[in-house]
Write a structure and sequence with these properties.
Shape: elongated
Oligomer: single chain
Radius of gyration: 17 Å
Helix content: under 10%
Structural class: little secondary structure
Strand content: 5-15%
Largest sheet: 3 strands, mixed
Strand order of the largest sheet: 1-2-5
Order of helices and strands: HEEEEE
Length: 204
């Protein structure tokens, strides 16, 4: 069901919270407060949500392809199976968020805070985590070909079972994260089961 940004905000202000399945493609929701809203399966492709408050929101199976999410508060958000490919998530607060099996292909997550988040099974192909915080994050079984981890904090991060797309497990040898200049590894679990006790700071 197609609704306008104005209608959504009016209904939210009136106390409504369940907007599952709505079509808000390209909507302007800059600095909107939609905390705790339910937008399961909603279409927010190419929507502008810059600096919005989306804490505790439910966005399972939502389409956020190419959305502008710069500076958004997504603390403890539910984004399971969401499509965030090509989305701009620079500086986003994703602490405690659940992004299990989400599609983050070519997403910009520079300087984002993903401490204690769950991205297990997510597609992180060509995602940019430069300067991001992944402390105590769960990235088990992710697909990570082309991932960028320069200056990223990877303390207590779990990459167990992660794999590069199109590369058989036995061929995944050598430096698993070639783009990780200045990254901090501490108690980091690598895809092959090795745990970097650290602290290990990769010299740029």
């Amino acid at each position: 069901m197609r609704i306008t940004a104005e209608e959504l905000l009016q209904r939210y202000a009136a106390g409504e919270r369940d907007f599952s399945g709505v079509d808000l493609e390209g909507a302007n929701l800059v600095r909107a407060d939609l905390s705790e809203a339910k937008l399961r399966g909603a279409n927010l492709a190419r929507a502008s949500l810059r600096e919005a408050n989306l804490a505790y929101i439910f966005l399972e199976d939502a389409n956020l392809e190419g959305a502008d999410l710069i500076g958004v508060n997504l603390e403890d958000a539910r984004l399971m199976r969401a499509n965030l490919s090509y989305a701009n998530l620079r500086g986003v607060d994703l602490r405690g968020a659940i992004l299990s099996n989400a599609n983050l292909t070519s997403a910009n997550l520079r300087c984002a805070n993903l401490a204690c988040s769950s991205l297990d099974g997510a597609n992180l192909t060509n995602a940019d985590f430069t300067g991001a915080v992944l402390d105590s994050a769960n990235l088990s079984d992710v697909e990570f070909a082309g991932i960028k981890l320069d200056w990223t904090i990877l303390t207590n991060t779990d990459f167990s079972g992660a794999k590069k797309l199109g590369i058989p497990p036995l061929e995944q040898t050598g430096m698993l994260f070639p783009s990780s200049r200045g990254a901090l590894f501490l108690e980091t679990s690598f895809p092959d089961g090795e745990i970097i006790q650290g602290p290990y700071y990769r010299n740029p």
